[in-house]
């Protein structure tokens, strides 16, 4: 029942996260086909990478803080209103700061000709921080369908705006509709990707409806102090996470020659998208699992449930890993519609590395439950800081020599370190009976099948697809052997 409930909620969150993001992912062919060159797509990746770091500042760990205090507090509405009011106030201050210092901010980012980007992203991030807390309430209140509806609306508006600006407006201009010049500048298509995000972030805020009324609960200063004490270490965790996840795009621009930075960031960003199926599943799972783990922490069989969940999580991730690699020769050209991206052979080669990296990250999300439940967020910050140090060292050393290939392998090293530290520290502070043999075997078998699929594709293309049922067969054998042992034990009694 535990797995069934979590799986059903993960499926609904996946409707908004995996399906919605997949629709958003389909914008990649649009960007790679319509943007003037690879460098322009590199600019998009670099700016969004900066935004990822700023998102940590705008939200400062309040989402996880809300889950922690809402489960302890008899009045979760008070927790919600206190956290939301604080985000509204801090977001306003940061927006004013961006208005005053937009030019210096973009000078430092490396795009001095676009000071308006700083203002737009301040509004985007402020709105997203508030939305994330509203979404957190829906997760806490176990309303995945409402969550999915608003999330899909957000993504749908973003997609429609992108299509309007990048496809419809140029078509209208080419057919003599000169009024379009009042809202559209064909010389800079990149800016409309950001404008689309701005519109979609702002327009969904009213759709949370009655949740705004919960702000009548007011602001509890004492509660806020407790929440900040819990949440501030999570800012370190968030920054470290962003270092691991997105700093490589920024460093590609900063550490490579001027004519290579945006280009390599564009190649890396495009092929990173091919590993997004794994990332989307991990994110959908986290949306469902985080409130679930908090709520079930006091149950008698909580640890057994956590072990059972991780095992099946790894099975699903292993399947995604094998299927993506087996289908990669067809998925790549289908989704990246510009042959210029394939002129660098290392692009496709990094996809298995990034898939495995995100599998490790997903396992860490499962393993990291212990420090959140035990109020050891400071320990979580140290773990994340160590992984961030690996990311910094690997990228600073590797990028000048190997370019984005170093970024991919460094990402794997950082996420694997998170996974191992999370397991061994959790074993000491919050021991859970994880089925390590089955988990390890399924990961190793997935890697082996992925390698075989890659090698055999060049010989017999369609034979590589057999790797997919091969992994399913392994899972069936592992689980059927367990059921057989249970039956034998029962008969022996």
User: Stretches where pLDDT falls below 50 for ≥5 residues?
Assistant: none
Rg over alpha carbons = 23 Å
| Average pLDDT over all residues | 84
Question: What is the tally of helical segments?
Answer: 20
Q: Kindly report how far apart the N and C termini lie.
A: 26 Å
**Helicity level, as a percent range?**
over 70%
Structural class: mainly alpha
Order of helices and strands: HHHHHHHHHHHHHHHHHHHH
Structural domains: how many: 1
How is the topology of this model organized?
Layout (H helix, E strand, L loop, with lengths): L1 H24 L1 H8 L3 H22 L2 H11 L3 H25 L1 H8 L6 H25 L3 H31 L15 H14 L17 H35 L5 H12 L3 H20 L6 H34 L10 H4 L1 H17 L1 H5 L3 H26 L1 H26 L6 H22 L9 H26 L1
Helix pairs in contact: 1-8, 1-12, 3-7, 3-10, 3-11, 4-5, 4-7, 4-10, 4-12, 5-7, 5-10, 6-7, 7-9, 8-9, 10-11, 10-17, 10-18, 12-13, 12-15, 13-15, 13-19, 13-20, 15-18, 17-18, 19-20
């Amino acid at each position: 029942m535990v797995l069934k409930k979590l799986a059903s909620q993960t499926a609904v969150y996946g409707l908004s996260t995996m399906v919605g993001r997949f629709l958003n992912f389909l914008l990649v062919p649009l960007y790679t086909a319509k943007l003037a060159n690879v460098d322009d797509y590199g600019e998009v990746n670099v700016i969004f990478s900066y935004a990822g770091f700023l998102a940590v500042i705008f939200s400062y760990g309040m989402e996880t803080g809300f889950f922690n205090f809402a489960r302890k507090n008899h009045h979760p509405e008070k927790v919600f209103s206190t956290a939301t009011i604080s985000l509204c106030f801090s977001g306003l201050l940061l927006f004013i700061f961006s208005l005053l210092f937009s030019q210096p901010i973009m000078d430092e980012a490396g795009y001095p000709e676009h000071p308006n980007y700083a203002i737009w992203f301040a509004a985007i991030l402020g709105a997203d921080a508030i939305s994330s807390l509203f979404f957190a309430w829906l997760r806490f209140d176990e309303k995945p369908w409402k969550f999915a509806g608003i999330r899909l609306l957000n993504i749908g508006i973003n997609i429609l705006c992108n299509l309007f600006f990048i496809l419809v407006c140029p078509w209208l201009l080419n057919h003599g509709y000169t009024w379009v010049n009042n809202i559209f500048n064909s010389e800079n298509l990149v800016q409309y990707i950001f404008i689309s995000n701005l519109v979609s972030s702002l327009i969904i805020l009213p759709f949370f409806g009655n949740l705004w009324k919960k702000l009548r609960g007011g602001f509890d200063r004492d509660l806020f102090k407790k929440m900040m004490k819990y949440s501030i270490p999570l800012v370190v965790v968030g920054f470290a996470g962003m270092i691991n996840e997105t700093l490589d795009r920024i460093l590609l621009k900063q550490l490579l020659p001027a004519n290579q930075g945006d280009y390599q960031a564009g190649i890396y960003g495009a092929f990173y998208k091919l590993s997004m199926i794994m990332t989307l599943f991990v994110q959908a799972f986290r949306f469902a699992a985080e409130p679930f783990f908090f709520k079930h922490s006091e149950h008698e069989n909580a640890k057994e449930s956590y072990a059972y969940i991780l095992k099946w999580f790894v099975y699903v991730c292993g399947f995604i890993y094998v299927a993506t690699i087996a289908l990669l020769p067809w998925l790549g050209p289908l989704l990246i519609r510009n042959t210029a991206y394939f002129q660098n052979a290392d692009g496709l080669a990094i996809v298995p590395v990034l898939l495995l990296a995100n599998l490790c990250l997903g396992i860490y999300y499962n393993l990291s439950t212990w420090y959140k439940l035990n109020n050891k967020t400071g320990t979580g910050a140290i773990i994340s800081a160590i992984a961030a140090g690996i990311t910094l060292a690997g990228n600073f050393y590797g990028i000048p020599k190997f370019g984005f290939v170093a970024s991919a392998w460094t990402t794997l090293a950082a996420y694997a370190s998170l996974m191992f530290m999370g397991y061994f520290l959790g074993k000491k502070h919050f021991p859970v009976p994880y089925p390590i043999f089955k988990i390890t075997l399924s990961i190793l078998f997935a890697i082996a099948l992925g390698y075989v699929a890659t090698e055999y594709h060049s010989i017999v293309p369609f034979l590589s697809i057999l790797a997919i049922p091969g992994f399913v067969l392994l899972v069936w054998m592992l689980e059927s052997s367990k059921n057989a042992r249970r039956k034998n034990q029962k008969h022996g009694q």
